[in-house]
Design brief:
heterodimer, A: mainly beta, seven-stranded mixed β-sheet, four-stranded antiparallel β-sheet, B: mainly beta, about 0% helix, about 55% strand, globular
Chain lengths: ~110, ~110
């Protein structure tokens, strides 16, 4: 049982380049989330999805887009990367918003130069 | 933006010591409070999800209490071991919101 899988694990981009981070879960979870982790800031929610075909903005959505075309996948896109987007990105999923804990992926370390 | 605060920021204890940390959150519109354990180079793992005022949860040597009226939760570790070294995160869900707001964590280091 893989749980939540994020790809890639590491990536270096130049300013202005684009990329997509993939999150896949095999637990049939309805809810999926993208967070970024920066020193001293805690995990901050970028975007989330409450089901296939739905997405919503979190705390820090600017500069990112997401899509949830399939229930098991949640994609995070950076259209034009900026150095401020250098961070560690975590995907998470849960059954729903009630008492369900989040299950996290192992993170993607992104550096934008 | 919801304010979820954790204290202390970091803690250094000796093996065998018992310790506790605090998570403060808005006392209005409470829905759930989560605790996660985050070891270095790994991803956060859920410890507890608490929803009722006065709730107490326990997993081995780790336990947590919840006071939704005053907006705080305590996490206790009894007889700390080196393998307890990690960052402990709390996260607050308010009302019917789907979002979970995390605190910045308490970093615990347990030495022999």
């Amino acid at each position: 049982n893989a749980g939540v899988t994020q790809t890639p694990k590491f990536r270096v981009l130049k300013t202005g380049q684009s990329m997509t981070l993939l999150c896949a879960q095999d637990m049939n979870h309805e809810y999926m989330y993208w967070y970024r982790q920066d020193p001293g800031m805690g995990l901050r929610l970028i975007h989330y999805s409450v089901g296939e075909g739905t997405t919503a903005k979190g705390e820090v959505p600017d500069g990112y887009n997401v899509s949830r075309l399939k229930k098991q996948n949640f994609l995070l896109g950076l259209e034009s990367a900026a150095p401020s987007q250098t961070s560690v990105y975590f995907c998470a999923s849960s059954y729903g918003q009630s008492n369900s804990p989040l299950h996290f992926g192992n993170g993607t370390r992104l550096t934008v130069t | 933006i919801l304010n979820v605060e954790q204290s202390p920021q970091s803690l250094h204890v000796q093996e065998g010591d018992s310790t506790n940390f605090t998570c403060s959150f808005p006392s209005s519109n409470f829905y759930a409070l989560h605790w996660y354990r985050w070891e270095t180079a790994k991803s956060p793992e859920a410890l507890f999800v608490m929803t009722l005022n006065g709730d107490e949860k326990k997993k081995g040597r780790i336990s947590a209490t919840l006071n939704t009226k005053e907006g705080y939760s305590y996490l206790y570790i009894k007889g700390s071991q080196p393998e307890d070294s990690a960052t402990y995160l709390c996260a607050f869900r308010g009302g019917t919101a789907s979002k979970l707001t995390f605190g910045t964590g308490t970093r615990l280091q347990v030495t022999l």
